Amino acid sequence: MNPQNPAPPPQISIDTVWLPKQNSTLAETVDFSWDIVMFVSIAFFMLLMGMMVYLAIRYRRHSEFDVTSDRDHNARLEWTWTIIPLAIVIALFFVGFKGFLYASVPPAEAYEINVTAQKWSWTFTYPNGVVTNELTVPAGRPIKLIMSSTDVLHSFYVPEFRAKRDVIPGLYTTLWFQALEPAESTLFCTEYCGGGGEGQQGSGHSAMWTRTHVLTEPDFDAWMRSQEDDPNLPPAQKGAKLSVTRGCAGCHSADGSKGNGPTFKGLFGRPEKMSTGQDIMVDENYLRESILQSQKQIVAGYGAIMPAFEGQLTDKEVTYLIEYIKSVK
Ligand code: CUA
């Protein structure tokens, strides 16, 4: 279980035996193409298998003296079975292309959210600077996601939205959708992006899911106000918030339990053994270096898997995180 999301993920909502519930304007188009392809495939499968079985029985060898017909060609039949499937695949192309165009061109007025993927968490940055690790969007408004990865290939996927696109390091990919109604669903990573270390549960590709909340417009506004930074919050509490939104909590527990990285509990002021055999006292400067240049000093027994946050966190944010780590005793 992902420590960032202690509750189990909401299920994919399925209201039929067929596809998940539709919760975006794109879903109908996608499902239409899917249904047609499925229907055509099933119809042809039954037709072809039926004919094969029928002909095998009808023209089976009756006796040792049966001879095979010398007919080897029927132009009319061959034209028929060439033209009909060709017409069908051309029609399917246009059905798919129409949906592809719709999915590829976000409306100009779309609300933009930046998405950052990293091993193994999602970060969402809203236009006003609010940062979260769960995706919250208003229903009925087009949303454009501008996505990038800080490490390896990931892929954004919300089944109910029928929205899926690769998230790539060093490149922005975009994806847009417009949710239909308030609901909660699960966002998955669908590109295998590595596993947690041995015996380290709750991390790795399979744990790289988060929640998606679709809210009504007024609820969304209220939620956004609640997220905006409270200037009166003590630094350690700001750091605690950052630890969740920036993905630290995904690997570093606050309760002493073992994760991909050392727990924050009791970390400050303690000597730690490095992979080089050296002992280092955990102080502010050590923590700062471990956050910004995470590969420099690795605590013995842990993999060098933490992304470096150089250029991704401000000095203030690093200070808040250090204050938070100091406060976890
Ligand atoms: Cu990220 Cu799989």
Topology:
Blueprint: H1 25-58, H2 75-104, E1 111-118, E2 121-125, E3 131-132, E4 135-138, E5 142-149, E6 154-158, E7 163-167, E8 173-178, E9 183-189, E10 209-215, H3 217-227, H4 235-245, E11 271-273, E12 279-281, H5 284-292, H6 315-327
Parallel strand pairs: 1-5, 4-10
Antiparallel strand pairs: 1-2, 2-3, 5-8, 6-7, 6-9, 9-10, 11-12
Dinuclear copper ion is lined by residues 117, 120, 154, 189, 191-193, 205, 208.
Can you offer a commentary on this structure?
With 329 residues, the chain is α+β, with helices and mostly antiparallel strands. 33% of the residues lie in helices and 19% in strands. It has helices at 25-58, 75-104, 217-227, 235-245, 284-292, 315-327, and strands at 111-118, 121-125, 131-132, 135-138, 142-149, 154-158, 163-167, 173-178, 183-189, 209-215, 271-273, 279-281. A five-stranded mixed beta sheet has the order 3-2-1-5-8, with helices on one face. Helix 1 packs antiparallel against helix 2 and helix 4 (235-245) crosses helix 6. The longest helix is centred in the N-terminal third of the chain and has 34 residues, at 25-58. It starts with 24 loop residues before the first helix and ends with a helix. The mean pLDDT is 87. Dinuclear copper ion binds at residues 117, 120, 154, 189, 191-193, 205, 208.
